[in-house]
Amino acid sequence: MSTILEIRNLKKSYDDGFEALKGVNLSIEQGEIIALLGPNGAGKTTLISVVCGIATPTSGTVTVGGHDIGTDFRATRSMIGLVPQEVALEPFERVISTVRFSRGLFGKRSDEALIENILKRLSLWDKRNNQIKELSGGMKRRVLIAKALAHEPRVLFLDEPTAGVDVELRKDMWDIVADLKADGVTIILTTHYIEEAEAIADRIGVIAKGEILLVEDKDALMQRMGKKELEVQLSAPLDALPASLKSDALRLGPDGSCLIYTYDTRAERTGITNLLSDVAAEGLVLRDVVTRQSSLEDIFVTLVKEDAA
Fold it and tell me: Which residues form a coiled coil (predicted)?
C-alpha cells in the first residue's frame, strides 16, 4: 500500500504557551483504518483540526496524497471528509439541500444518484425534505456523516462519530466504514468506545499529552502487550494465599474465592501445570477454571498510566 497521509514533526502551541501537539510523526497507508486513542485533552481533535485545515500548525508538515496542506490547501481539503464531534447544522435547511450543498462546496458536479444512495444508507431518505430542526439528535449525527461523504473523500476523519448516539446508528456507521474501506477509503477514527476500535481498526495509535506513544498493528499490539489470565475458582474461600503458592504472577481474588494467575502465551512454559499441581498439593478443591485475554482497553489504560508516571 502507498502512504496517503504523512505527518512530520507537527507542533501546535498557543499564545499562553500550551503545547497541544509536540512533534507528532505519523504515516497512514491508503485504505487502512487507524484508531487514534487517547484521554481527554490528549491532542486528538487538535491533530485532526490541523490536518483538515481548521487550525494552523506552529511548525511541521502534513501532506495528503502528496499535496502539502499549507501550499496546496484546495487539493488536500478536497480529499478529506470530516465528521466532527459537534453538531453544527443550519436548523431551517432541508436535509437533502444540506448534503447537496456540501458536495457543491468542493466543486463536484451534481450527482443525485450518489446523494440518494448516501441518504438511503444512513436511513435519511425518508427525512430528505425535513428541516434539520425537525430531526432527533441521532438523525442530525447521520446528516453530518452524509455531508462528509457527499464529495467522495479518499481520507475520512471520524471524530467521536458515535458518541451519545443509539446502537442502530453505530451499527449503520460501522457497516458504512466497512464498505468505504472496501472502496479504498482511508479512515482515521477517534472513539471512547474502545471495543469498536478493537473490532474494526487495522492499526492502533495512542496519543497522550500531545505526543504519539505508539502506532502498531492491532493484532501485533495485543499479542505483544496483552496478557492472559487463568482464574482458578475454589470451592471454599481463602483468607490469604498459602506460602507455597505465593508468586508475583499469582494473586487472590477480591473475595478469596479464586486464584488469578497471569501468564504470557508466547512463553515456552506458562507455568500452569506446576500451579495446578501446587494447588492440589495444598489440598484446595477446584470448582472451575476460566481463562481471560486482556482487551485493547486494558492495554490502553496501561500505556496511558505509564506515560503519566
Answer: none
Closest CA to 46 of 187, 210, 183: 210
What is the rounded CA–CA span in Å between residue 26 and residue 214? 10
3-223 architecture in CATH? 3-Layer(aba) Sandwich (3.40)
pLDDT of residue 122: 87
Grid cell in block for residue 175 = 457497516
Q: Could you give the CA distance from residue 181 to residue 176 in angstroms, rounded to a whole number?
A: 9
User: Distance (Å, rounded) from C-alpha 252 to C-alpha 258?
Assistant: 6
| 150 in Cβ contact with 100 (< 8 Å) | yes
CATH code of the domain occupying 227-293: 3.30.70
Query: Which amino acid appears at position 39 of this protein?
Result: P
> Strand, helix or coil at 122?
coil
**∠ Cα 143 146 148 (to 5°):** 110
Sheet containing 19-29, strands listed edge to edge, beginning at the edge strand earlier in sequence:
19-29, 3-13, 59-64, 67-68
**Nearest Cα to Cα of residue 94 among 161, 151, 143, 149:** 143
Domains of the chain by residue range: 3-223, 227-293
Grid cell listed for 210 = 500531545
Q: How far apart are CA 61 and CA 74, in angstroms?
A: 16
* Positions of the chain with pLDDT lower than 50, given as ranges: none
Q: What pLDDT shows up at residue 295?
A: 61
